[in-house]
Amino acid sequence: MKISTRFDAGALTVTDLSNPADIRLALRPDNASDFAQWFYFRLQGAAYQNCVMHFENAAQAAYPDGWEDYQACASYDRQNWFRVPTRYENGVLTIEHTPLANSIYYAYFEPYSSEQHLNLLGDAQGSGLCQIDDLGSTVEGRDMNLLTIGNQVQSDLKVWVIARQHPGETMAEWFVEGLLARLLDPQDATARALLDQATFYIVPNMNPDGSALGNLRTNAAGANLNREWLAPTLEKSPEVYYVREKMRATGVDLFLDIHGDEAIPYVFVAGTEGVPAYNERIAALEAQFKAAFAAASPDFQDEHGYEKDSPGQANLSMATAWVGENFGCLAYTLEMPFKDNHNLPDDDFGWNGQRSLRLGEAVLSAVLNVLPDLR
């Protein structure tokens, strides 16, 4: 048997591989921080053997509550992913699975590779409706790309969507893929109506370094990008610095920051109730958006989620709070589950890339609904 991780986003530490029925593993923390939860590895040479894989340090994960009712993802070809039996007992996460081939991959969630990211950019540009701009470089010199879709006239509403500040939350880029596919479809009436009134600014991956390195939550410098918005620096968080500067140049009328949540098994949003600029107009827009989103996708709900911040208590170093405060606009963090959506469970696949993609398509209906009221 052999376990390897020397590929895009691979992450794992192997302790003992001598017995297929007792494989000892450990979660590997982010390259420059202590956050640990993401794993992605290839197992070879174990076809038709009952493999029992123990993550012995699972209790030290960034979000140990994320292991309750969690099922790991597996794939033979890295295109078709399915869930495999997983349990969490006494601080140890155990995957028990019998591979039907000599090469199989296991991951915390369905990955979205750097190659897929570049293909996404190429497909968007190839539509003829999308302009790609380079905002600058990441800590390790990767490209920070912005997709601009629309007429880019002063009168247009400015809709900003960013995804994957936390690189292990790959469902966020799947979501953007779905959003882009619909927005760039000239036969889609919703897309045409949106682009008649708005210009979209989309950053599909805010954290290309962390994505390639197999990090859960931080960039190559160890920065949690969603705590850098108050005072980003070119040394520690250039990704946020460049995007923030571009936002100041364009303005923002609607902002969506796309994420995944390890513990909560639902799709939900978190708004800007705690920022000083929050008012009745924003509250009404939030309610309008949520009602339209629920009508567009039964996967969305508003019963379960984060506790709302008290007035004036928002953390302005977080993207949604900073944007909502500085632009006085409707701003939401959108969260999807790593597990399954308990409202519409799927035993075979759980929440996955395709469901994230479909949610990205559906959110455009909610955006269209609130568009006339954004200013």
Automatic annotation (TrEMBL):
Pfam families: Pepdidase_M14_N, Peptidase_M14
InterPro entries assigned to the protein according to its UniProt record, in alphabetical order: Cytosolic_carboxypeptidase, Pepdidase_M14_N, Peptidase_M14
MF terms in GO: metallocarboxypeptidase activity; zinc ion binding
Biological processes per GO annotation: proteolysis
Cofactor: Zn(2+)
Active-site feature positions: 335
Domain Peptidase M14: 104-374
PROSITE patterns: PEPTIDASE_M14 (PS52035)
Keywords: Carboxypeptidase, Hydrolase, Protease
Family from the record: Belongs to the peptidase M14 family.
PANTHER family in UniProt: CYTOSOLIC CARBOXYPEPTIDASE, CYTOSOLIC CARBOXYPEPTIDASE 1
UniProt name for this protein: M14-type cytosolic carboxypeptidase
